[in-house]
Amino acid sequence: MAEEEHASRLVSQLLRRERWLLALAAVRSELLSGGTVGDALQLIADRSAALTDADGVIVLLVDGKGLKVWAASGARAQVATGPTSGVTVPLSDPWVAAVTDALGAYSAHEFPAPRQPELAALWRGIDSVLIASIPAGVGDGGLVICLRAAGRDPFQPDQQPELVGLAEQASIALEVADRQEQRRLYELMADRERIARDLHDHVIQRLFAVGLSLQSQVAKIEAGPARDRVDQAVQQIDEAIADLRSSIFNLRSVPHDQRKNLRRRLSDIVAGVGDSGPRVTLRCHGPVDTIVSPELSEHAEAVVREAVSNAVRHSGGTSVTVSVTASDRLDIEITDNGRGIEKDVTRSGLDNLAKRAASCGGSFEAVGGKGGTTVRWTAPLPSS
After folding, report:
1. Does 136 score more than 90 pLDDT?
2. DSSP 330-361
3. What is the pLDDT averaged over residues 162-166?
């Protein structure tokens, strides 16, 4: 009898091992096929539910503000596939610290109930949990949590190693997705750089040649409508060249990357001007990268991009200076040595900067004159 029980346990372990290997193979196949991170995490949740015989599984990743639910699976977790998916549990919730520190099989009653309403509804009626950590890598890590309702046998500690193997695949999924995104961005920027180079080296130079040729003939034309039309054509060519330079500037701008700090992103904007326009200098003062919130960083980046683009297109100057200061407020000042703000220049871009300042509780002004233009944009920073 004892031998039969031992043999039965061995068979059960072998079958469970086989299911685990099949689950790993399925997840790796999804990663190699080029699927999205969401698809891979959902597959991990589905396979974890089947492998551990769980009533529900949730996959959470650290997103800087707390733990965010990225995938949910199992009959018990159906409430999570709607409003709970995408929900973030803040770091201040005691539940976050409790589940993060507890890896393995536990009674659900050992943890405080989550305060987040959707997760609180999911947690009610749960008797046993199995928790595995998603290692930090490209991201900041996370958790895979399996749930069993009251009345069922609790999870066993020997189930955790198998769940750990699946949780590790989530970290690999994030790394693979990051590499794919970096490769895509590299290819995009290489293509943009090629287009910008062709515009600068060929199209702009040909327009310059046409403009010079027309200018050389103006003196030979008697004053009158014909000469006025030639002067107007030369002016239109100059405007077309300015527009092309602006397009080159935008093509060379690096796409926004949330992982870069604000100083680096502003440096990318300045570097994007290249040799196609005035010399742009960036000066940063104070803890720009540490006390400016992500939301305000988005505004700051947009303000600098718009103001520098305007200077490149319209100022006609040779230099632009960008000064960013972080203290009790964020101050951004962009100055150029051009011809000032012309009356016929559209103000839609300046109006957008004013609206951004107002939405942040700050201020905006643009002052132009013969010596150039100064744009000032400010927004308050939260007190420490």
Report:
1. no
2. EEEEEEE-SS---TTS--HHHHHHHHHHHHTT
3. 79
Tell which wins on pLDDT, 117 or 36: 117
Instruction: Please check whether residue 174 is in contact with residue 89, taking contact to mean a CB–CB distance below 8 angstroms.
Output: no
Does 82 score more than 60 pLDDT?
Answer: no
pLDDT score for 331: 94
Q: Does 275 have pLDDT greater than 80?
A: no
Angle between helix 37-52 and helix 2-32 axes, rounded to 10 deg: 170
Q: Rounded to whole angstroms, how far apart are CA atoms 378 and 266?
A: 16
Q: Within 13 Å of residue 164, how many CA atoms lie on the same side as its CB?
A: 9
- The Cβ of residue 66 has, within 10 Å, a number of other Cβ atoms equal to 16
Q: How far is CA 19 from CA 8, 14, 23, 166, 237, in A?
A: 17, 9, 6, 12, 70
Give the number of other Cβ atoms within 10 Å of residue 112's Cβ: 14
Residue identified by tokens 């960008």 is: 322
Cα separations in angstroms, 82 against 41, 78, 172: 16, 8, 26
- Round to whole Å and give the CA distance between 80 and 73: 8
Tokens linked to 319: 């230099």
Whether 174 contacts 137, CB under 8 Å: yes
Phi and psi at residue 225, in whole multiples of 5°?
-60, -40
Q: Among 244, 301, 302, 300, which residue's Cα sits nearest to residue 276?
A: 244
Residue 45 has which token pair? 């949740």
Question: Which tens digits make up the pLDDT trace of 84-123?
Answer: 566 788 888 888 888 888 888 888 889 898 888 888 888 8
CA distance 147 to 170: 19
Q: What is the DSSP letter of 162?
A: H
**Tokens 């949330």 identify what position?**
258
Q: What are the structural domains of the chain?
A: 2-179 (3.30.450.40), 254-384 (3.30.565.10)
Q: Tell me how far apart the alpha carbons of residues 326 and 297 are, in angstroms, rounded to a whole number.
A: 11
218 contacts: CB under 8 Å, gap ≥ 6: 227, 230, 231, 234
In the predicted model, is pLDDT for residue 369 greater than 60? yes
Hey, what are 382's tokens?
């939260």
- Please report which helix (H) or strand (E) contains residue 51, including its range: helix 37-52
